[in-house]
Every structure is written in C-alpha cells, then in structure tokens.
Design a protein that fits this description.
With 134 residues, the protein is an alpha+beta fold. It is 34% helix and 37% strand. It has a 4-stranded antiparallel beta sheet. It starts with 9 loop residues before the first helix and ends in a 12-residue tail after the last helix.
C-alpha cells in the first residue's frame, strides 16, 4: 500500500482537535452549589486534558420524558468544547462513575453545527426560530 503521507502516529492523533457538545442530566436533588461544583468538575477535566470550553449553558430543572432511577425530573446542562479526539473515552468513564449523573451524551459537531451554535449564541437569526404571531 502506498501512502501519500505517512499514517498518523499516536502523538499526532492526540493533537487533532474536534468540536463537541456534551449534554448531562444530573439528579434533581442537587443544591445550586452542588450543581455548580458538578459542572466545574467536568469543565476542569476538559481543561486538564488540553481542551477548551467554548460555551456552557445550564438549562436547569426539566421534566424527563420517562423516569430514570425513579426520578421524573433532572437538571440539564449543555457544554460546547474543543478537545483532542482521545478525550471522550476518559470523559465517559468520569461521567459513568459519577452518581450525580443520570444520563449523558457527547456529540461531535461538524462545521455547520458549530456555525449554527455561534449564530444562536450571538442572537443572529438561524432560520429555525418559530414565527411569533402578534
């Protein structure tokens, strides 16, 4: 097999940065301070592993579509970050070990999703807003 470029070494793979979005549903019994501490723990984890936080958005207490661990509500938090591709396995282990986390999902964002999120945060029309009848 002929390569135009040598395959990426392990060291080079770690340097590739990707955009991700993490959504976490925390147990609803957390106090405001516990919720902030839980967020900080994952923000610090991303930063300690060469990641950079783009945006953090605590949604607060919401009803769940179905009970999880006999709970019908959860505290939602969404964080957008840029990090090396190898970080997500380590992050998943941390999330699964945390008893305060009911559910989580990490989504890799393509350039269109990053652009959409940036526009949405800055208040620019994204074309997906609902028309307000007046």
């Amino acid at each position: 097999m002929t390569y135009l470029r040598a395959p990426l070494s392990n060291h080079e793979t770690k340097a590739i940065m990707q955009n991700y979005e993490l959504m976490v549903i925390f147990t609803p019994v957390l106090s405001e301070d516990e919720f902030k501490a839980a967020q900080k723990k994952f923000v610090d984890f991303i930063k300690a592993n060469s990641g950079e936080i783009v945006h953090s958005n605590p949604w607060g207490l919401k009803s769940l579509a179905y009970p999880i661990q006999k709970k019908t509500t959860g505290i939602y938090w969404v964080m957008e970050y840029v990090a090396p591709t190898d970080i997500n396995e380590k992050l998943k282990i941390q999330l699964l070990r945390d008893e305060q986390v009911l559910r989580h999902i990490v989504i890799k964002l393509d350039k269109y999703a990053v652009e959409y999120n940036t526009k949405k945060r800055s208040g620019v029309s994204t074309g997906t807003e609902k028309a307000v009848e007046g």
